[in-house]
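lol ok so funny story. i was supposed to be doing the assay writeup but got distracted and ended up predicting the structure for this chain instead. priorities right. anyway since i did it might as well share w the group, maybe its usefull for someone
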Amino acid sequence: MLRTYEAIEKVSNAIIHENLCEAILVKGSIGRGDDDAYSDVDLYVIVNEEKLKQFLDKRIHYLEAYKKIVFYEYMNFVAEQVVAIYDDGLHIDLYTVTRDNLPDKDKAKVIYDPNLILEEYNAGIQQTSPEELAERFSSALYYIVEADSAYQRKNYPWASYILSSSIANCAILLRYLYDKDYTYLGLKKINEIIPCKQYLWIEEASKNLNESGYPLALYKIIKILNYVTDNIDKDIKNLLNLEFFNWMKEKLENQLFQQKNDEEICKIISKGC
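and the output, tada:
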């Protein structure tokens, strides 16, 4: 048994034993059915309002039913949440919800539902809109300009961080071409989703986020965005800021990330062709 399923079973049994919840379900990769040995657990527990405080006070106790916890933190992102990491490295997000605020995005696997309150629960796919794709396209370009400013100041760690955000937006755009339903997952398991050639562009861009590698990383980002504009649906392409993109391509060889002489830049870029 994978550790994720062992954890789900032990934590769920501890919760069910005290009769404080109405239902339990799992979302994320396990809910979608594309999990593996390295997946984390997104566990949602539906609790009646009158038992909510009692349940919230016992969350760590329930989580400890699996193994020793080395770190935990209370959050409120989608709902009342505990992020827990165990000594075997497993990560569980335990969400406490009511029937009224159970998220209706992404698929789910029902673990416990004695009164069939989830019988008609049908979570929808979190579609990425054309407008959001256009925003991602512009953001990928904007982050390049911001990263270049950090580069010119010789703040290379900050430049790398900002440029990684450009790559992340590129990944969402690339993923849309091959995996429209789960575009929002971006870089998650993208090596299993898109063709090897396009994946290698992302990999090359990522591994060159350093002082000498920025020109090649930028070249790969532009290559990805060119591919996207050539292959994306026409109605979405019409929303993309192609004027900004064309400006970016003009600046690629004579302005952005230029602290080396032109001959050195050409040598770096030619390696990525």
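The longest strand covers residues 69-76. The chain has two domains: 3-112, 130-270.
back to the writeup now i swear
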